[in-house]
Amino acid sequence: MGDFADNALIKKLNEFGLKHEVYSHVACTTADELVANVPLGSDKETHTKNLFFKDKKHGMFLVTHATSTTFNTKQLGALLKLEGKVNMRLADATLLDKHMKAKPGHVGPLCIVNDESKEVKLILDKALMDYEVIHSHPAQNDASVKLAPSVLQEFMTKAGVEPVIVDFTAAPPAPAGGAPQQKGEKKQGGGKQQSKQNKKSAKKGDTLLALQWKKAENFPMWYSDVIVLSEMISYYDISGCYILRPWSYKIWDLIQKWFNDQLLELEVENCYFPLFVSQDRLEKEKDHVEGFAPEVAWVTKSGESELAQQIAIRPTSETIMYPAFSDWIKSHRDLPLKLNQWSNVVRWEFKDPTPFLRSREFLWQEGHTAHATYEDADKMVMQALDLYKQVYQDLLCVPVVPGYKTEDEKFAGGHMTTTVEAYIAGSGRAIQGATSHNLGQNFGKMFDIKFQDEKGETQIAWQTSWGLTTRTIGVMVMVHGDDKGLVMPPKVAPLQAVIVPIISKKLTVEIADPYCTSILKDLKKLGIRVKYDDRTMYNPGWKYNHWEQKGVPIRIEVGPMDIQKKQARIVIRHNGEKMDMPVEGLGSAIETKLEEIQKTMFEKALKARDEHIVQVTEWKDFVPNLELNNLVLTPWCGGEHKDWEEWVKKTSREESLKARGEELEDERTATSVAAKTLCIPFDQPELPEGTKCIASGLPATCWCLWGRSY
């Protein structure tokens, strides 16, 4: 609840002492989006739809009704017993902001208290009073408040508002289009075609199998749809925090298992350090703490008592681990020290959160090492980065560009940062996949990490740190998912195959069960992660949709003819390919097919990425290529030129907004139209002598990769 402490409507609920619960969810502008993306606990709960009307003669009305209610706006005047001519029109955003202090798509019935002039009449749907719980926006569309109907009415009484409760079922039936939409909302069509679409949608929605959004039409909402309906996450009541359900955590588990095996080869040992860090320790390295200061979460109380000194929750662990390094390292014989920990981290982001990509708490591994020489540390940096490249390319089938970060983008307090950068074709944006840092001797000096070398002379240790997060999962979803749901690379798929019997009069459970169980045992012997879906409450079609949405790479169908022919129908998730395979040797055939799928998925993603990397040598071509969803490789005067890097960000933002007919950009946005440096790629194209930097006009020293980024 503390996360909503600045919300005026929540403050008012607290002031009135009314029982309520507020929770965060994906931003939803329409009631349809709420229904699709924020499922409720039972049919005794409802979201609300809120419409703000203006009538020249009769004034303004805020109408709040259950999402299941439909009514004809033309009959509203009669229901309200308004005399004379009634001409209800949806009010514009300016009027909405003036009276409700909310934007379109952010309104709920509680907003009525913001109408200081008392000009707006609140109309409540009588059907709302029959529900046990009402969910509505508290003037922000990424959160909802849960109230009992009686509490909502008590709120209005204490606020001095007299709502009119209307039975909308008393009105004539609404036309097929239903209630009108707020200005700015996209119309969905009407007539018989719309009626058919609604019917189709409702049928699928009953099983929660239908994605409401297309990847190419609304990428952010598609992404939210996929990760919720595929049972990867659930939303939590603190903004920016999410529940990782077993389907997504298994992916992280598989990455973790693979990574631990690689760490053993590099003689890196796992350990665990505390979650908390004292203020003195955190602030010991000036550049480091300045880089993280806006995101640090602090513990200030124990019960009702104020702590003598506030304690930070780790944003990263350098300042937690390195005092121990100082205690443990005394001689060159103590080096190298190579540690890794799997842990959670809290960074109190103020930009718009996105599950997996940008959250206030996330899971990661962080490696921390100390070495006797710079060369040894640098080797460790590159070894760690190569592991990250393998995670993305070999496990997740996501191609990455490895390279150096510029001075402006490097890790706070570090000497040098390397990175792997991925590309999301659906949004035309890059995303930082993972980073590996050469910390130099900076932290060694701060934390007194010294050792006696072989000559007996005192030296400062050279250090590295490197981290990979659950962002990997979100990148995988965005790169491979389609309009049916997830598409999982076999190596990280929680299930690599699912067996679905086609039960009918011709094929009973008694006949299908031993046949399918035999296939199951054959595949399990080879280490294939497989499930036999023998649930009888769902038909085969429902199961097909369910497992397609969860991205299982291979579906094995067993029908009566398959048993007769001693075969099985194989369906490939990523491309829809179908084939019949004999049961004899099926396990080995599936094993081969999984390897083929892994290879094909990477090649497809690589082709999509490479088609969107372009070389540009003149500024006039820079922003137009960003608008084409491209990453731009340009000649650059060097990573140390922070001033020209900032110029590119500023100028590309201004030119992009102008091209779009927009003036300003929300400072909270995590998806700016501005370009930023992604990396200076290790793999450098030839740079002809005399080539000028695209921004400064100075002699170019390298090629730099730019793009819009998450």
Q: What features would you describe in this structure?
A:
- The protein is an alpha+beta fold and 710 residues long.
- The chain is built from 20 helices and 31 strands.
- The strands form 6 sheets. It has an 11-stranded mixed beta sheet with strand order 11-15-16-22-19-18-17-30-31-29-28, sandwiched between helices. Strands 1, 2, 3, 4, 5, 6, 7 and 8 form an 8-stranded mixed beta sheet that branches.
- A hairpin with a 6-residue loop joins strand 9 (233-235) and strand 10 (242-244).
- It is globular and about 100 Å long.
Write the topology of this structure.
Elements: H1 8-16, E1 21-24, H2 31-37, E2 45-55, E3 59-66, H3 76-79, E4 89-90, H4 93-100, E5 120-125, E6 133-136, E7 143-147, H5 149-159, E8 164-166, H6 191-205, H7 219-229, E9 233-235, E10 242-244, H8 246-265, E11 269-270, E12 276-278, H9 279-282, H10 286-292, E13 297-302, E14 305-313, H11 318-328, E15 337-346, E16 361-371, H12 374-395, E17 400-404, E18 416-424, E19 429-440, H13 442-446, E20 450-452, E21 458-460, E22 462-469, H14 471-480, E23 497-501, H15 509-525, E24 530-532, H16 540-549, E25 554-558, H17 560-565, E26 567-572, E27 578-582, H18 586-610, E28 613-615, H19 622-627, E29 631-636, H20 642-659, E30 676-681, E31 702-707
Parallel strand pairs: 2-6, 3-5, 5-8, 11-15, 23-24, 23-25, 28-29
Antiparallel strand pairs: 1-7, 2-3, 2-4, 6-7, 9-10, 12-14, 13-14, 15-16, 16-22, 17-18, 17-30, 18-19, 19-22, 20-21, 25-26, 26-27, 29-31, 30-31
Helix pairs in contact: 15-18
